[in-house]
Structure formats: structure tokens, C-alpha cells
Amino acid sequence: MAVTHVLLTNDDGIEAFGLQVLEESLRGLAGFRTTVVAPATQQSATGRCMTLNRPLRIRAWGSDRWSVNGTPTDSVMIALGKILRDDPPDFVLSGINHGPNLGEDVHYSGTVAAAMEACVQGLPAAAISLADWRPSDFGAAAAVVRRLLPLLRERPLPAGSMWNINVPNGPESMLKGVRVTRQGSRTYHDVVNDMIDPRGKPMVWLAGKGPSWTENGDSDYAAVRDGYASLTPLKADLTDHDVWRRFTAALGRDLPGQPVFDADGERFVLHRDGPLGLNFEGPTRGGDAMALDGGPGEPQPPR
Prior knowledge:
303 residues, 15 strands, alpha/beta, 7 helices, 2 domains, nine-stranded mixed sheet, two-stranded antiparallel ribbon, Stationary-phase Survival Protein Sure Homolog, Chain: A
């Protein structure tokens, strides 16, 4: 079998201990080689954010290791579109995250986002997290990666799906096994905290206390709580297919009701054709609207 090229990334940054553990867990594994492209700094909870308002820089960190001063999604995009353009990876692993990514946290997680970006670009991918708010022992997580990766390579998920893996804190000897799970559901408490800064001005800090969980025996949370690693398949397609089928039959293809904006629909137009073939935008994107000669409030071409 050909050697499998694995791209390693994360959201905790190029210097994170969890990424070092991920690299070490795969070192010397027959049939695999790795390349690291990760954010330059901590990028937790950045979700699927990509950087469009500034240029990005790439820095080499030795052999087959690079950082990008952007988000996890940026890192994967640049890895696939530039750094590894002529040597593309066969699999993408994101982690090992310093903390859990269970339940709805997958929507905020930079770790999951990096794997999802690979998934969207057609590559098999997995996110791995140490499911403890005070991570200390990555032994079980390292063992799960090394023992599962050959199996995940041999049994790939359908296109558009990825694995979200959470592993209990502790050595391999404490791990009871592996469960294939569903995404759980949790509620955080006191998320928005009112505070006063050192200059006496009010501010808010998003933090919150530990979540409470909806009890579900086959959830990712239940597996980790009971001492198992959880493997949850996630999909890039967020369509609720049951609702889609039901409402397609109920609503058909026509918009219900009568037209309501026939007379004044012009006030909702952002783009407007001007003289000389120029196109003008409203203030939402193009700055203050300019006025044409001959009428106040009309767009005007630059002079």
C-alpha cells in the first residue's frame, strides 16, 4: 500500500502540546508520513472563520512544519492551496485539542472547523480532542490516534462526512474502549458576565460555567463520561432533510400570499446602474452613497 500523507493541524497553535503529542503518536507508524500546517497562535472557538480583511503570512518551523498567522480554516486552505499544492495530503487530522468538543460545541470549535474545511474540499478528516477542561494526560488520546488511523484509512466515510473524536483525560490503561456516538446537547450557564475594567468602565466577558447535559446514553458526552473514546460522524451538509421533505410537500414551490412590495420595491435595491456604465452600491458595502448631478440623494460618479 502506498504511504498515506497526513496533514496535521489544530486550533491551539503551532506550539501547542496537543499538536506535539499528535505528531509523536504517528511517528514511525508504518505506511504514514505527516506534514504540519497550523495557526501561529491560539485560535480556539474561531469556528469556520476565514481571514479576508488582511494578508496572511507563512512561517517555516523546520522540516515539514509551517504556521499561518490566521485561523484553523485559513491554515487548511493555505496548506491545500499553496504549501502542499504539489504534494497533497490523503488525510487531515486536527488536534489534539486542549479541551472537549462535545455536543453543540462543534459549531464553535476551531479544531472541528479545520477538519470540516478538509472535508468540504473532498478529503477524509477527523478532529481529536482531549475531553477535559483541565487537560493533563494525553496518553489515551495518543493511543486512540495511533490505533484508529489505519482503520479510518481503510474504512473511509462517505464524501462530505468527517469524524469528531473525544477522548477522556488519562493514560491509555484507563481507557475502556471506543463508542460510535451521536452529538449530544448541552446548556452553558452565566455565559455573559458583566465586569468593570481597570479604568472603571463597564465591559462584558463571554465565559460561562460548565455545561449541563441532556441525558442520552448514546451521546458523545455519555461515552466520555463513562470512560470511552467517542467517535461521532459529522456532515458538512446542514440541511434538515426530514423537514425539507415535509415542507416541500406542504408548501410546494410558490410563495404564499399576495405581492406586498410592488410599488416601493426600489427601496430594497443595493446595486444601481449609473451613467457611463458605472455601477454604484449603497452604504452597506460601498461606503456613503454618492449623488448624481441633477438630483439629491442619487449616486454620482467619481470626478
